[in-house]
Structures are given as structure tokens and as C-alpha cells.
Amino acid sequence: MKIELQHISKSFGANQVLTGVDFTVESGSVHALVGENGAGKSTLMNILTGLHKADGGTMLVDGQPTTFTGPLDAEQHGISFIHQEMNNFLQMSVVDNMFLNKELRHHGLLDEASMRKQAQQYLAQLGTQLDVDAPIGTLSVGRQQMIEIAKSLMTDAKIIIMDEPTAALTEKEIDQLFTVVRRLQQQGVGFIYISHRLEEIFEIADTVTVMRDGVAVSSAATKDVTMAGLVHDMVGRDMGDFYPERHPTPGKVALSVKNLTEPGVFRDISFAVHEGEILAFSGLMGAGRTEVMRAIFGIDRYTSGTVELFGAPVHFKSPAQAIAHKLGFLTENRKDEGLILADSLHDNIVLPSINGFRHHGLIDTKATDKFVSMLVDRLTVHPADPAAEAGSLSGGNQQKVVLAKWVGSGSQVLILDEPTRGVDVGAKREIYDLMNELTDRHVAIIMISSDLPEVLGMSDRIAVMYEGRLMGIVPTQTATQESVMTLATGNQKEAVTNGN
Amino acid sequence: MATKSAKFNLRQFIAKLGPLVALILLVILVTILSPGFLSPTNLLNLLRQVSINAVIAFGMTFVILTGGIDLSVGSILALSGAVTASMITSGIPSPLALLIGLALGAIFGLINGLLVAYGKAAAFIATLATMTIYRGATYVFTDGNPITGAKMNNSFLFQYVGRGYLFGIPFPIIIMLVAYVILFVLLHKTAFGRKTYALGGNETAAYIAGVKTKLVTVIIFTINGLMAAAAGLIQTSRLSSAQPDAGTGYEMDAIAAVVLGGTSLAGGKGRMFGTLIGALIIGTLNNGMNLLGISSFWQQIVKGIVILIAVLLDRKSSKA
């Protein structure tokens, strides 16, 4: 089987996500697809499997123009998509999961013996043996991955799309996965392999396509490309003067973290951020950046290591304690963790500071109204109506409301987790300006960001994490997208490290 | 744009004033069918009947605003009432007995709160269990018999709670109004109230914004237990006896009052005023149907239908 995507274009509203993308995969080959978050990889795959409809371009399957009506249709034509988040019913057994919706029946009743036998056969084909009656949730992620592949074989897949299959696997499990991929490849199955881990690409793929900003910028045989070339293709865009100039005047150490460790999540994390400084945390998704910050802020636990705030040792057991010590945390997911969507702007902004507005036990609403309208003005929240429901605002304005919460609570150390994700360009610039203004007032900012240009444009130093470890901290002035990316993909040798 | 804002207003209107409009329509309907309804005697009688359910429902409003539920209020009412009655009949001074009765209710509520906040039990299941336990404890304590006695009839203060009058108004109504004012202020004018809404709207976001979500949950269930006990004292005093099966099914009337008042069972949205109106709607229905001589069997069906209509209307208005 050969699938050719030709000149595929797609936009969501005004947002052009794919522009004239060509992509080909055929039986017996492994074609890697790499690119930063938001480069358009997922959209391209969703078009291939019929979940989205392309605005322009054609898809040829064995030379015939084809469109699938949806993932199920694609599956029936031998194209199977193994998502990063596996949709298993964790409390149901392996065999029940494998045969869900295609149960074998005998006189109207479930034919459990045959299903069990077939499940074992498919797994044996992958060189895997396991108890097919065990609840799938009790198995390791690596095993579950194998079961996903077995499910693809059950649908007689000719092309298997794998999205970040190794994100949660151990090295040994990765080896097993690659063995299976090679075995199936020899039997004529083709793979589209999406991964952030570039070293894997060289190990398993024979062709690699790099996407950036909705365009396939390069496509070549793996043996003809280098790691540095791939990285350059992935990130090589101009920053322009999109970011406001920074004139940092770092003061004394605000937050200092030493050897922070939570087994299995992050280990040996040491860094310090100064007053008036922006320290960026870069790394791939799942590198453990958010987890470190959640632990410092008292949401999650850490087992060893120390945290000092303005020289005094602290160990927060709850966000309430952290806030009392002038720490603020703008969470990655504003809808689930940052805002109470059904409440008004006023109530959202006041919440972290509410105890400060008590007057004889009652809320001084005149004071809160003044406080809120001052912040809404200052942060140019639109609409500037304190009574508006938070859920009715655009993403950028919602983010400003979350920022207003923490600015208003007087945070001296502010952790911003993906502060501009899902925010339009204009609002982005306003958020950057605000960050500058805060550091001018000696606030220390830790900014987690997966957007490399943003990291380089808005930080003073860059801490890079990879798989729960801090790979190094580099001054932004000497950092390049390539050097940061090299560290973020677990490759330490080329980068300059500076342990401070 | 104009139509959009008009729609928005309609939605707000239904959410805020819908229950009040329903109550007024109901009062008009009952008055037409039975002109005696509006007599001062009947109205005071109605309010006195409403007071017990309303007092429970005020506490329940907090619980439901957090997205929780408390099924054990009827049992707390019975157990607190029984213990208080027995203390009075055995000669303990009535002020002390009343205070202990209230404190017991608070403790039973506290246990519910601890189970939900720290035991991480679903509120429905936790309070279903304590409902049975508290009810069983009432039967054990009373040996299944009503507690009565001359001492209860002779204690002025105890009698006053359920049967007294202040400025010509039955004292249970005064209790209801005082409870309303206190809980209204607590919910709408204090930081604790804001935290209640935040907890119900998005527990994770509230926690990250520094709300001590577990503490707030425990306090809310404690208040709810206290209110159930207060209702128990009114009822015990009114009847001059504590019945072991007192309060059976009262949790449903309280929940119905809260929901009729427009508070969302999902939490985060609702008002104390709505609950007062909800309790009055249920009271007016009961009273009106009694005046009209409708059998109590039919009354239940009508009440159920009214609750269904209210919930369906509410779903429509919040979806629009």
C-alpha cells in the first residue's frame, strides 16, 4: 500500500495550519514526522485518517484519489492510528479491550474461549506473552503499547501511525517496541512515526520529514541528514522584534532550589531565580518542568531537596501556604486549574487575595471593586466589565485575568506555566510587556514555555530539562535555538552549561 | 448584538427571579381557588410549617453549592431532638440541653464533612451511610419509643422554641428569619461565601488560588448539621415529644427547596434567596392543597411534577 498526500492545505478559521504539504508513506517503510508542537503534524494525520477534511490537495491511495469518511473508515482500509493517549478501559481485561465492539459471538453469547485464543495469537505475533485476563490498567505502558499494536494487526493494518509511542516507555520497552516495528516492517507494514526524540529517528526511520508552521520544510532519507540539520529545520524561523527588549537588573536571590527530587518524576533539580529576573524553563512536553513547579508551590509532594524563599527555608504543603509567602502560579491549563469559568472576572481576580479584604468579617466590596477595576484597566482585559463571566472571554483575556489574580495578590515570585499558550499575537505582546513591567518592580519570574522563540526572546537565563533532570542553565545571550534543543533532546555534549 | 444581550438578560431573569415569579403565580392560583389562603392566620401557619424545612434547606444550600449533598439531615434532626428531649425529661436545665442538642448536630455534620473532605468519600455515599447510622442510633437511644414527659411541657424555654410567639409571630418563623439573615450574610458578604462558590465552581482552581478546600468543606457540613439540629429542636418542642422516626424524608424536601430556588446540583451557582423562595413554594403547595382538600397521596404526585417542571425549565434556561 502507498499513501501520497499532495499539496494538502487546511485552516481553522483564520488560522492557516497546513500549507501545501506533501507526504508519502508506503508498505515496508518507516517514515518519521518531526516538528515542534503546533507545527501541524497532528492535523496532517487527522486529515489522512479522515477526521478533518482538507481545504485543498489530494490524497492518493495506491494511485487512486481517496478520502476517508473518518478514522473508522480509514481503519477498515488498513490504516490504523495509535494515539499517544491510549483509549483503553483500564478496569477491563486485555481481551475485552482488544475485542471491544468486535466481540466474537457464539449463539448470541460471547465466545470467550476464541477471543482469548486469538488475543494470545496476535500478541505472540509481536513476541509478547501476557495474561490476557488481567485488567489492562495493571500493565505497564510498554505492554499497553504492544496491545495497541496487536489491535492494529487485528484490523489487518497496512499502515500504522504512531504518535509519540515512546513518550512513557523505559529504554528496555523502547528496544522491544523497535524490535516489533522492524519485524512488522519486514512483513510489509508501513509506519508513520511521530516523535520528539530525534535520536530515535535515526535508529528506526528510513525517511524523515520535518514540519514547521504548517509547511513540510524538508524530507529526506535518514542516512542523508544530521541531527543538527534536523534541529535547524525544526526551529529555524526569525524572531524579528516581536519581543520587547529586556533590560534586566537582577537583584538578590528570590527563590533558590537545591537537589529537589521526587522519585520517578524529577530528580536533583537545583536552580535559583533572582529578583527582577526571568528564568525560562525549556524542554519537551513531559520533561518534568510543570511537575517541579507544582511541587515547589505545594500542589504535589517532593521527597528530598530544599527550597529557600528570600533566604528562608520553606516547604509548602498547600498552595495557601505558598501564596501567604508571596508565591504565585499561573497554571498551564487555565480552564481546568486557573479560572472558575462560571464566576465573574471580579470573583476570579479577588479569590487569592480575598482574606485581605475582610473588614469586621465581611468583604469590603468597595475595596474589591476598586482593586479589580484597577487590575482590569492595567492589564487591558476586554471586556473591562468586572461582572462578565470568565468563561465568556477569549483565551488571551482569560490569561490576563489569571495574571491579574497573581499580580493582585502581590506575588514576589511568579511561576508562569505556558503564559501565552492559545493566546493571539496581540495579547501575547501585552503579556510580554506586563512581564517586563513586573520584573522592573523586582518580581522574580519563572516562565515555563515550549515555544523556543519565546524562551529566547523573553528570558534572561534558560534552564533546560529532559526526562526529569536539569540538563543545564544557559544565559540567554549566548543561547541559540539549536543549543537549547540539543539539551532538550537529552544531548548534553555540545551545550555550554552554567550551573548557577 | 441586541438580541444576544436580550437573551442573556432573559436567562439571568429566569435564573434570578424565576422562582419568585413561580411563587407569586402559585399564590395567585391558590388564592383564587381558596380565598381563605391569604388570611393572616393561614399565612402565619404556612410560614411556621415552612420554617423547619427552610432551616434545613439554608444549610443544604451551602452543601449543594460545593457540588455535594447531605442525605443525613433528617436523621440528625431526629437524633439531636431525641437526645435533647431526653436531657430535659431527666432534669437537665433546658438552656444547656438546647445547646448540647445543637452542638451534637454540629458534630454529626462535622463527621460527614471529615468523611467527604479527608476520607474522600463521595458525599452521596458518605451521607447515605451516616443517614442510616444516625437513624439507627436514634432507635437505639429511644428504644424505638417516643420521648415525652411533663418536664418538657413545663420548661418555658423549651416550649417557647416551637410554640412561643414574639410580637405575635410564631417563634419558629423568627428562628427561620434569623437563620436566613445569618446564612445569607455568610454566603454573600464574607470571604467564606466566596470560597464556597469557588470550591463548587472549580475545586482545583480554587485550591491553587489558595482556598483551603478541605477546611471549607468540613465547615459547610458542620453548619449543615447544626441547622438540621436546630430544625430538630423546633419540631421536638412543637410536638412536645421526640419521635424516633422524626424527619424521615426531610432531606428530600430540603434538596427540593434548594433546587427549586435555582441552585445547581453541579455546584457553584445559586443564591440563599432562591432557597427561601423554594421552601415557600413547597410550603404553599402543601398548604394550598390541604385547604383544597386534596388527598395527601395526590399531593405527593403534584409536588413531584412541580419539581420536575422547575428542573426542566432551569436546564432550558441555562442551556440557552
Automatic annotation (TrEMBL), chain A:
The record's section on Gene3D superfamilies has: P-loop containing nucleotide triphosphate hydrolases
By its UniProt entry, which SMART domains does this protein fall under?
Answer: AAA
**Cellular component per GO?**
plasma membrane
User: Where, subcellularly, is it found?
Assistant: Cell membrane
What InterPro entries does its record include?
Answer: AAA+_ATPase (IPR003593), ABC_carbohydrate_import_ATPase (IPR050107), ABC_transporter-like_ATP-bd (IPR003439), ABC_transporter-like_CS (IPR017871), P-loop_NTPase (IPR027417)
Q: Which SUPFAM superfamilies match?
A: P-loop containing nucleoside triphosphate hydrolases
Question: Is the keyword Ribonucleoprotein assigned to this protein?
Answer: no
| Alphabetical UniProt keywords | ATP-binding, Cell membrane, Membrane, Nucleotide-binding, Repeat, Sugar transport, Translocase, Transport
Q: Which PROSITE patterns match?
A: ABC_TRANSPORTER_1, ABC_TRANSPORTER_2
Gene Ontology terms, MF aspect: ATP binding; ATP hydrolysis activity
| Every ABC transporter domain range | 3-238, 251-492
What is the topology of this protein in the membrane according to its UniProt annotation? Peripheral membrane protein
Domain of life, per UniProt, equals: Bacteria
What's the protein name?
Answer: ABC-type sugar transport system, ATPase component
Taxonomic source organism: Lacticaseibacillus nasuensis JCM 17158
The organism that produces this protein has a lineage beginning with: Bacteria, Bacillati, Bacillota, Bacilli, Lactobacillales
From TrEMBL, chain B:
Q: Which domain of life is it from?
A: Bacteria
Q: How does it sit in the membrane?
A: Multi-pass membrane protein
Give this protein's Gene Ontology molecular function annotations.
Answer: transmembrane transporter activity
List all membrane-crossing ranges. 20-38, 50-83, 95-115, 121-142, 163-187, 215-234, 273-291
**Location relative to the cell:** Cell membrane
What's in the keyword line of the UniProt record? Cell membrane, Membrane, Transmembrane, Transmembrane helix
Q: Which Pfam families match?
A: BPD_transp_2 (PF02653)
Q: Which InterPro entries match?
A: ABC_transp_permease
Q: Which GO terms describe its cellular component?
A: plasma membrane
What is the recorded name of this protein? Ribose xylose arabinose galactoside ABC-type transport system, permease component
Lineage at the top is: Bacteria, Bacillati, Bacillota, Bacilli, Lactobacillales
